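Sequence design from tokenized structure. All designs in this work follow the same two-part layout: the structure record, then the generated sequence. An example of the structure record is given first.
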């Protein structure tokens, strides 16, 4: 696998095992774009920086689950990159 330090990455942030909640973390320059591709806020307002937002995970236009999401902008994150969590 050829990766670049500037790639946008995502991964499961919760430990393995059975759980009712899982966290997926996205980090890199396309983090906000990637989150918006799979998350639809219930409110008409767009995602607000550092504010947890309720909505739905989507596959295309089909809603497949309920979720909470949040975005963080660089450099004020612990990776110093744009980040999002779902």
């Amino acid at each position: 696998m050829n990766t670049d330090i500037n790639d946008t990455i995502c991964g499961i942030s919760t430990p393995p095992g059975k759980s009712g909640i899982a966290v997926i973390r996205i980090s890199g320059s396309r983090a906000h774009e990637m989150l918006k591709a799979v998350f639809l806020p219930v409110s008409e307002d767009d995602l607000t920086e550092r504010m947890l937002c309720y909505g739905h995970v989507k596959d295309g236009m089909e809603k497949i689950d309920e979720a909470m999401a949040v975005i963080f902008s660089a450099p004020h994150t612990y990776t110093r990159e744009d980040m999002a969590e779902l």
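The helical segments are 31-38. We note this feature because it recurs in several other targets discussed in the main text.
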